[in-house]
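User: What would this chain look like folded?
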Amino acid sequence: MRAPLTIAAAQPACTAKDVRANAREHARLIRTAAARLVVFPELSLTGYELDADVVSPDDEGLAEIVAACEDTGSVALVSAPVEGEDGTANIAMLRVSLAGVEIAYRKSYLGGDEPTRFAPGDGPVAIELDGWRVGLGLCKDTGVQQHVSDMAVLDPDLYAAGLVHLSDERDMQEERGLEIAGACRSYVAFASFAGPTGGGFDETAGLSSIWAPDGTLLARAGVEPGEFTRAVLA
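Assistant: Here's the prediction, encoded as structure tokens.
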């Protein structure tokens, strides 16, 4: 039988386009959360700056996150623009652990001005962690029925997503979390930016949340940057 999974959803304070400063904030939250899995918002390493440089998994600025994961035994899901194929770029979720950094997922559904810079990824992804099957998503993915349906086919135990929502979109954020929990019959963890994060997002939603498969709210952060929420999933 799989062991319980301790998960945290974090909403780091963000410095626009400064990967090293944001990596330090990620490392701080990882150490403070003391969770096996720590999920961060969309574009957490750069802020929602669509013209930010792509971030390589080999970027030396990510070393502090790797070190924090090594010290705590955590796996972190962070987000950044990454290099794609044929000169394109993707919005991606990176998996960080003591083993290093790898691209785990490339966002499938793009919104707003994102298609002017980024290409969509190849579809839903689920990773394995300690016997748990973890589906991955980024922001608009969570509101696209096709993505949710395709994710349900992968039969995740947990769906983890990084978000950037405006403060007046908190109800929508809640509705999407509950819909995914029901459709996938899984736990859901949303890490949602709080405070300013660039790209016109002067005030973001916060309220990073973790739900049970039946929609019960297990844990929720507030609306300030630098907070996180944490739960033990059985």
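The domain at 5-233 is CATH 3.60.110.10 (Nitrilase/N-carbamoyl-D-aminoacid amidohydrolase). If you want, I can go into more detail on any region.
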